[in-house]
Recover the amino acids of this structure.
């Protein structure tokens, strides 16, 4: 009589890792649905409700060249003149801020880093406020915003290297970033102080609170170009970012020119942050909380982390913008809502790191 066959099943850490990896791959495959669903939902909500079937019917009528009359004419004005530019800009800004935040965290090997903490947002905000004060157009505001943002990040990085010692870089990076952030915030306050109280001051103040209420197709195109210019190098450099997260020595052993790639990544990330701020104003915390949430979902590999951050960040900011324009009769500045969400999350991260250290 033959002995019954016994099937041995290997149970161990590796099997668990494979299961987690497969789960993350499945989740990553579903993520593209998020911004698409948020986009379709956003088309229907607002002061002027538009059912989704009516939207597709309107698209068909425009494609066939059918004249729009009555409700369809009003619907077309709302959708294509107001709502669609705002939706696209929210998707672009959310994607840009999330991608820049994830990249900064990889460059500096610190998950607590974001464009806000490094001072990039404050520097870009000062540059844009200065451009508004001098009546620059959108291209001038974007250029001034970029120069302010890159200056702030370079100051933070250089000051940290100058005063830091091995093992203290993470804490000093955060502290130095706060110093630079407050410095540029003071410069912005000076700009507001000297601004014309009847003209420029209200414009700067409203812009600093962040929002997309005045977005037109012109701003969408002005945002799309620098976003593409900043995003492409990041996506092409994902494996180099992975190498940088292990340290410069390990990255150099893999053939990565750490100095050149770090300059390219900082330049591209700051371009994304500055272009977003130039169009939408100061919208904080997105670059911190979205990469963290994404890392929990898909893991730390930048091959999937960066595109997933873009998808989740774009959907997140679009949904927050929907809340900003629909919850109350008066629209809430977008930067206020993201701060309400982001500040408690940052406190949670600090407490979590403290618990892990103990």
């Amino acid at each position: 009589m033959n002995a019954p066959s016994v099937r041995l099943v290997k149970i161990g850490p590796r099997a668990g890792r494979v299961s987690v990896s497969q789960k993350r791959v499945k989740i990553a495959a579903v993520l593209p649905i998020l911004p698409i669903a948020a986009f379709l939902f956003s088309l229907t909500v607002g002061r002027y409700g538009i059912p989704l079937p009516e939207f597709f019917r309107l698209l068909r009528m425009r494609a066939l060249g059918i004249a729009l009359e009555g409700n369809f004419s009003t619907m077309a004005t709302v959708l294509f003149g107001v709502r669609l530019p705002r939706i696209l800009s929210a998707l672009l800004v959310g994607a840009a801020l999330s991608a820049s935040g994830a990249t900064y965290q990889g460059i500096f090997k610190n998950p607590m880093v974001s464009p806000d903490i490094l001072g990039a947002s404050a520097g870009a905000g000062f540059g844009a406020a200065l451009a508004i004060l001098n009546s620059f157009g959108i291209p001038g505001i974007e250029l001034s915003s970029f120069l302010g943002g890159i200056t702030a990040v370079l100051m933070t990085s250089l000051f940290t290297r100058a005063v830091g010692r091995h093992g203290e870089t993470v804490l000093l990076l955060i502290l130095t970033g706060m110093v630079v952030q407050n410095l540029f915030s003071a410069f912005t306050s000076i700009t507001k102080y000297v601004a014309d109280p009847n003209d420029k001051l209200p414009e700067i103040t409203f812009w600093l609170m962040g929002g997309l209420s005045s977005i037109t197709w012109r701003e969408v195109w002005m945002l799309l170009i620098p976003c593409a210019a900043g995003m492409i190098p990041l996506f092409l450099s994902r494996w180099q970012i992975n190498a940088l997260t292990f340290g410069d020595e390990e990255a150099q052993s893999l053939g990565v020119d750490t100095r050149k790639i770090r300059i390219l990544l900082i330049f591209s990330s700051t371009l994304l942050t500055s272009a977003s701020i130039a169009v939408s104003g100061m919208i904080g915390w997105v670059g911190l909380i979205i990469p963290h949430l994404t890392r929990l979902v898909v893991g730390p590999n930048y091959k999937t982390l960066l595109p997933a951050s873009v998808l989740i960040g774009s959907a997140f900011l679009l949904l927050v913008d929907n809340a900003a324009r629909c919850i109350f009769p008066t629209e809430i500045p977008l930067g206020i809502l993201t701060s309400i969400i982001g500040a408690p999350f940052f406190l949670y991260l600090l407490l979590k790191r403290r618990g892990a250290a103990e």
